Amino acid sequence: MDIMTGSKKNIESYSGGKYLSYVLALFIGLLIFSHNAQATIACEPSTRFPAITIVPNVTVSSSTAGNDLPLGSTIYSLQNGYSVSTLGIYCDAPFTVGLDMRTTSMPSGAPTMMNTLYGNVPVFPTNVAGVGVVIWKNGNSSNKYFLTSTIVDSNTAISHDSAGDSGIGPHVKYFGLALVKTGPIASGAVVNGSSFPHWVWDVRAQSGYSGLPITVLTASYTGTSTFVTKTCTTPASTVVDLGKYDVTDATFSGPGVTTKWVDSSIVLNNCPEFSGYHGYSGYQTIDGSGAPTDGSRTANIFTISVSPANSVSGNVIGLDAVAGAASGVGVQLGYTPGDISAAATSPTTIWTAGETWDLTPPAAGGTVKIPLAARYYQTASKITPGIANTQVVINIYYK
To answer: Can you tell me the distance from the alpha carbon of 154 to that of 172, in angstroms, rounded to the nearest whole number?
Structure first.
């Protein structure tokens, strides 16, 4: 009995020893794991890939931006970046870190949200009333990350699979800038680049890292851009004589018959040069702190509309309802869309109620003629002789 009892006690003691050993090993493992989880990766500015400062010189020769461009229109656009170096940081272990854009100064004030060709985005004011500026980081595809008064994730990362230096390679189209119309612009207004916001590109502070944030790029702007919004001098009124006709002759043989076209062109004087502007897709490029290169200009446009004083039936304008007015006849207008040098009396299109058309004015400005023609149109089988006048207002929108 004693031997059996002793054997039992030995076995129990041995089993207890295994249990204590397992618990001790697990506790040590937890201590090691906890120690590793608390370790931080130390980062610092890279001497191999140092930070840079860029000051793009946004100097643009005179641009013509018509007063009738809608609000939110792009009147200048730019892509900029750097081509001389890689920007980066050093960390003492493998790392992956993200970058933010951060506004550091707003010389002309805080941005407001506005509908533009880029969407509903933050638009900073500039030194010129009616002109705002939009700044962004280009992303994949057509994604853009817009600068605002708070920190913006630029959806960009730097990573390295070991301790050391790593960075972002050079590219001259990392960032974009656009001047947009926010209100009426005084002709001859000069927009100063120094009035644009200043900003930095930071490696953001994040959990598990020390030494962050680190600025890798600092940006501000210089230069001047002049915008012309002057319009032409228009005549107070133009009287067009469509001629006198005997209603009994063969000229008016039935509905649909017309007289010959008469030149009714509108002559504009003292027009500015129509130099166009670098719009949404005609952006220029600036490398680092250089000046703008390349880019195409969007041509200025006249949009023409007609506002008759009398009723319109299809493409026939009614006559003035005055004592002694003729009946059975109306007036048609003819024009050639897209061709400001077209012969007025050979129009390709008869104006119909609600239609507008576009013309590209000559770059030199000066005296510009908008080709237009008018004629009588028989609307009834019988015409009553009398006064056959009508009035229309020709609206010219500068874009």
So the answer is: 16
